[in-house]
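for ur thesis appendix - Endonuclease/exonuclease/phosphatase family protein. copy paste whatever u need, i formatted it the way the template wanted (i think)
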Amino acid sequence: MSRWSIRKIQVHTLLSLLSVASILAYASVLIPPQFFWLIPLMSYGIPVLIAINFILVIPLLFTKRKRVLYPLACLILGLPFILDTYRFSHQESTLAYDFSVLSYNVKLFREYKVYNKFSKELIETAVKDTSDFKCFQEFSYNNRWSALDVPQKMKEEGYYAYIYTPEMRDADHNPGMALFSKHKIIDKGMVWENPYSINGVMYIDVKMDQDTIRLYNVHLASMELQLGQYKQSDHYLTKIKDLFQRLKNGAINRSNQIEQLILHTQNCPYPYLIAGDFNDTPYSYNYHTLSRYYSNVFEKVGQGFGFSFNSTLFFLRIDHHFTNPEIEPVSFEVDRSIKTSDHFPTRGLYRINH
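the 3d part is after this line
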């Protein structure tokens, strides 16, 4: 067999393997993470596989036209994921809006990457934001020191509050979650909670003129990745095994938590909006489960990539807003100008469909 024939077989084999890997990764978003430990890892590879297929299309188009069908078909199949990743600029909506929502993981109001010191700048940013509703994850306060008494500061700005603090607290702060509203809260509660974790899902019902709406604040389980340890080469196999286990456990925990959220919204008598830190990317089973029940606001009215994580893995979009059909998104943005937390704040404008 000639060298040329061997090379053709090798190219064909590599393209076939890439196609199979792409299809398996795409299909992974339909399979619950409880089914197989590799499922969450496969979904994380979707953007990489799309990028490789895209890079291969151009040279194959001019050199091996028949084989360009492999990466081209993978790109066509991956189009929904491409649209989930990037939204092209759209014309600014002229619709009036009824209310605005801020969602922000404020990292316990600590200095960025200096967790033993509180950030007055971050507190000021959260307090002075003028949104009608504010959803905070990793919220913290200390009412013994006025500079850290965030609930009192919000009250002075005209907000009603619902704050959840689990049993895990210390002398310096009360970690948890918070919802603040310019409109009077007529009901509130927890969808699920863990007394030993700052994660949870909370909600408030508010009366707005003739309408009553419900707002959910979500903070799903994180994977608690210690990224710094992977920069060191010692015990690498153990670290990789630990990474896989954390990815699997996180995906399974979030899947169970999402099931509870979906069940709760199905019994909601009002239009509702869901916002928060979901710790899941658009390439996951959990995200696609949510998208089957709710409309993702970024995908409706956002633009660009919408990356919301302000850390080493800057390319992650894990902070989301979702609505039911009775609430129409007008605009959505990730405010990347505010860099005082390891998440960027997300903001949306909404109108109520009557």
